[in-house]
Amino acid sequence: MRALVVVNPHATTTSERTRDVLISALRHDLELHVVETTHRAHAVELGRQARTQKLDLVIAVGGDGTVNELINGMLDGEHGSDVPAIGIVPGGSTNVLARNLGIPEDPVEATGLLLDALREGRRQPLGLGRLDQRYFTFAAGVGLDADVVRTVEELRAAGRKSTHALYVRTAVRRLFAQPDRRHSRITITAAGHEGEALPPVAVAVISNCSPWTYLGSRPLRPTPRASFDSGLDLFGLSGLGLIPTVKSVAQMTTRRGPRGRRVVSLHDQHELTLHSEQPMPVQLDGDYIGERTSVTVSSVPNAIGVAY
């Protein structure tokens, strides 16, 4: 079996020695080529090449960003039977996709699970989300959520270490920095429900699974019914007043998720369009992608196979 291993050398939870051990184990079962990423979107290029070269498998050794880039490269705007399967050895700080799939966070255990899957021929189809022409695996965010991601990326580029505490502090600061926090400017249109008047929101999280993310070991569930096996779920808040926002975040730590008159929830949606008169920040799988005035988000069932 011909495989490509894509290693993010800056992954926060795997050392160079650990990666060498993992690659040595994989070489026993695979015809292997190993590449380290050197720049942003490098994994997109590598994923695209893997599909062109008709490889059987691409293995991501890194975090959610590495997995997202590889999948976008392999699919390259469309899915089909010639797309390689993907394997995941978690190496990021949060590893949301791997944890939702039940892949062990320990890289050695994850490699063992991957090898078992390859020997037994296990490939699980994975549904994805797509925002305009870019795929995401677990979540997209518009508004405050994406603003926090953007700010953390800027802090990391300036030399700050990515920690859960950094995200929490940044989220609090960016909440108070939002313009006109008590009013909403993002309108939502759901395919098949065009006649329904959905409340506008100040922030939107579109989820492909639950939990949406983790704060250390604690899962956060803004959309507790979201699943890889169904369409997309949306969580929104009609305003960003301090008390309602803090209450909703606290409710995310429960299995029921957020509720209340300011909460907007949609379940199992095929397609959503979000629009704002003012440009709004957007993130996919924890990666800031810029500002948009309008985005279309759709569910893509069985988009890619995962070996685990």
UniProtKB/TrEMBL annotation:
<dbReference type="Pfam" id="PF00781">
    <property type="entry name" value="DAGK_cat"/>
</dbReference>
<feature type="domain" description="DAGKc">
    <location>
        <begin position="1"/>
        <end position="135"/>
    </location>
</feature>
<dbReference type="GO" id="GO:0005886">
    <property type="term" value="C:plasma membrane"/>
</dbReference>
<keyword id="KW-0808">Transferase</keyword>
<dbReference type="InterPro" id="IPR001206">
    <property type="entry name" value="Diacylglycerol_kinase_cat_dom"/>
</dbReference>
<protein>
    <submittedName>
        <fullName>Diacylglycerol kinase family lipid kinase</fullName>
    </submittedName>
</protein>
<dbReference type="InterPro" id="IPR017438">
    <property type="entry name" value="ATP-NAD_kinase_N"/>
</dbReference>
<dbReference type="InterPro" id="IPR016064">
    <property type="entry name" value="NAD/diacylglycerol_kinase_sf"/>
</dbReference>
<keyword id="KW-0418">Kinase</keyword>
<comment type="similarity">
    <text>Belongs to the diacylglycerol/lipid kinase family.</text>
</comment>
<dbReference type="InterPro" id="IPR050187">
    <property type="entry name" value="Lipid_Phosphate_FormReg"/>
</dbReference>
<dbReference type="GO" id="GO:0004143">
    <property type="term" value="F:ATP-dependent diacylglycerol kinase activity"/>
</dbReference>
